[in-house]
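Render this sequence as a predicted structure.
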Amino acid sequence: MVPQNVLLNGLPNIPNTSSNAFFDPISKLPTPPTYGPLLDIFFRDLVQFFPFLERGSVETRLQNGTMSAFLINAICAIAVKFALPEGMTPVQASMPFMQQANSLLIELLRLPTTDTVSGLLLLSYCEFGQNSESGLWQFSGMAIRMAFDLGLQNSTDDSLFESPEEARRARLLFWTLFVMDRVLAFGTGRPSSMSEDVEISLPEPPHQPPLPAFIPFAPPNHIPWCFPAAVRIIILVGRISDSLNRRDALRRRNSNDTQDVEVQNNERRQLLENQLKEFYADLPQELNWSVENLKMHAANGQGGLYLFIHVWYNAVLAFVHQHQTPGTVVTKDTFKISLSSAQMISEYLVFADLFTNQSYLASPFISQPLFIAACAFIHDARVNHNVSLGPIKKSAETNTPLSVPDLQNDKGVGLLGTISAQNFLIIYKALRRMTWPWQGIGYIVNLLEQRASVSGLDQVDFSATSDAIQSFISLPDSGIVQKHSKTPPQNPSPPTTTTATQPTATSTIAPVMEYETTVATNITNSNNTDSLDTNSS
């Protein structure tokens, strides 16, 4: 089964990874001139979200021949989105490295290792960048299952690892997966996959990896590390999410216990909300929100994590006070709390854009909090100020600060007449920019455009929202392409003994074919998606 109205089209600018000069044909590693600049990008802007990776360890392994080709290709696949070759989009630039990594994956699944878990997690980010929600879900799921297969949740004995440093990195890998799991559960409404019942301790400041050596203005290591606070706040966010998801599951089943469970859930949610507020209030002074702290953490290579903490905290408050649940009522006072939290998120984005825009551009999973804030602004503008926010005209992307209004969007009917309307446009512009490296955010952008234009969620056409987005999938299986094509295959009869043994001529780029689907997808039918080098034999 495939969605409706899909356009399958080749991506002619993507090089063939089996013979491309980017890769060593024997080791499958990218060549040093290829991975060198990409490691610079990764360890400057992205490693803060993946603290289990350290540049010193990676470079040592590259030099002594022990570096995983799968992992280094996954690192390059995500880093190249922020160091584009001329004339290429992030989708196109990332694809060769993803193909190279995927060509190595099948055999690696037979032998669980922390390298494979790490690469799977990175590839799940890349799949989101290609707008493949299924890829995001499947790769992150494989990473989680392999982590449990390795027993990372119970790895308290350092002697089980090659060194104490390796043990420390393995535990940080587990908590990075945990954050990913909870963020996905919150965003999709699905149950979380990873239990909190683990034996390893939460990350602490002594577990902090070394600072990137090439940040000359980085202050000393006494600055609080943001990752432990990010893990702790997501634990509380996950508990609130699980509480809400459990209630919804019971309501869908029409369970007789729904009313009692809803009362218990509301009590638990209020308790968790109070715990969240207490945790946030008790953050060290250096982790409290301020522009100076933002600049300090950005210089320390962790501006994105610092923003992540504050955005998620305010998003949860905005969400629980914006939506009515059984036993609760949304009043003007509660909505003021929601709107205040949303305004804080808008303020964070403005300053982040001025001082360290990579703090949000490199952080795809703050898109859910931004969506929550934008919905609060839409509601306030429409209900409290009678201001229409749409339809929004899509202007060309510019490098103007988020705080500068886009006059092309001012329809002369008060679009910029309220603070909420201006804040909505700040969020909207940020999400539009984030869509460039992370195509999966396009769904949120299109949904916001519709919500700004209609009077209620019931009027949003979700199929039309999906129709405007393109997914990019490299598909080497021509049989699947032909099976779901409107155009019947040239030889639809089952193969005979004779025809089955005859070579089949296929092109490296699939022909353009229209499908009845809901997502527009570009699929490359490449028979050379880094298979064995047949020319050498």
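Summary. Residues 15-212 form one domain. The longest helix spans residues 226-252.
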